[in-house]
Specification:
- It is a single chain.
- It is built from twelve helices and five strands.
- The chain is α/β, with parallel strands linked by helices.
- It has a single domain, classed as Protein-Tyrosine Phosphatase, Chain A (Alpha-Beta Complex), CATH 3.90.190.10.
- A five-stranded mixed beta sheet has the order 1-2-5-3-4, covered by helices on one side.
- The longest helix has 16 residues.
- It is globular, with a radius of gyration of 18 Å.
């Protein structure tokens, strides 16, 4: 399949938070190639036009980091011809079906108890730490797959912000991308056209009331402190990015050389 390299970010109708992460700088003066690594929200609601565009990218593999709960809520990805789909469930910061039911149906009093006074943001910080510290096997598997064959690749979760965001961050660390550049890309998920569409049940008593949306906002924000918590976990537990990649994820020097040869210009 002929690969289309987009010159501008596409406006996809049914897929949120899609972008090419090409162009990010590495510490040795190189850059991530365009057209080899993409990120997005889930593809379950992709339109026919969205699917045609995604098919034109010549993707080899789509990594779906959703678990069974949110795959059940949002649906399975649309099928793209000739593309390998790999489900690698990671811990959901929202913690599954019961939590999402509260988000979508809970009244104001319930949401205050669950999320107010910093509890929502604290939940996100702890989730980022957990994913970094407890999902080393999954991240190591993804990186070795990228080094061996899975390129071009698209990584996504539900919103394309947390599980996909951390997986992209880990991949970029392995490529030697500067942490400031990783953070800048991560924060792009806050743009209005990229944010996850919060869906509240029609039966929810308080609907989309301003206080409800304020309480929910930390769950759907990309915040510096969330990503920083993940980086801090790397530094505290392993001492350095290099040790995290080798001892935590099990990446060998040849693995990293292949990754960089394939993904960097």
């Amino acid at each position: 399949m002929t690969q289309q390299i987009p010159s501008t970010e596409p406006e996809l109708t049914g897929v949120r938070n899609f972008r090419d992460v090409g162009g990010l700088p590495t510490t040795d003066g190189r850059r991530v190639r365009h057209g080899v690594l993409y990120r997005s929200g889930h593809l379950a609601q992709a339109t026919a036009e969205d699917s045609d565009y995604l098919a034109s990218l010549g993707l080899h593999t789509i990594f779906d980091f959703r678990d069974s709960a949110d795959r059940g809520l949002d649906g399975l990805d649309v099928a793209l011809p000739g593309v390998r789909n790999v489900n690698v469930p990671l811990s959901d910061p929202a913690d599954g079906t019961e939590f999402w039911q509260m988000v979508r149906q809970g009244d104001l009093a319930q949401l205050r108890e669950l999320l107010a006074e910093g509890r929502a943001a604290n939940r996100m910080v702890e989730a980022y730490r957990t994913i970094i510290e407890e999902r080393t096997a999954e991240h190591g598997r993804v990186l070795r797959s990228l080094a061996d064959e899975s390129m071009p690749a698209l990584m996504h979760c539900a919103a394309g912000k947390d599980r996909a965001g951390l997986s992209i961050a880990v991949t970029l660390l392995a490529l030697g991308v500067e942490r400031d550049a990783i953070e800048a890309d991560y924060l792009k998920s806050n743009a209005a056209h990229r944010r996850y569409r919060v869906r509240r049940s029609e039966a929810a008593v308080d609907g989309y009331a301003p206080e409800v949306m304020e309480l929910l906002s930390p769950l759907f924000d990309a915040r510096v402190e969330y990503l920083a918590a993940g980086f801090d976990s790397i530094d505290r537990r392993w001492g350095s990015t290099e040790a995290y990649l080798s001892d935590g994820l099990g990446l060998t020097a040849p693995d990293r050389d292949r990754l960089r040869d394939r993904f960097l210009a």
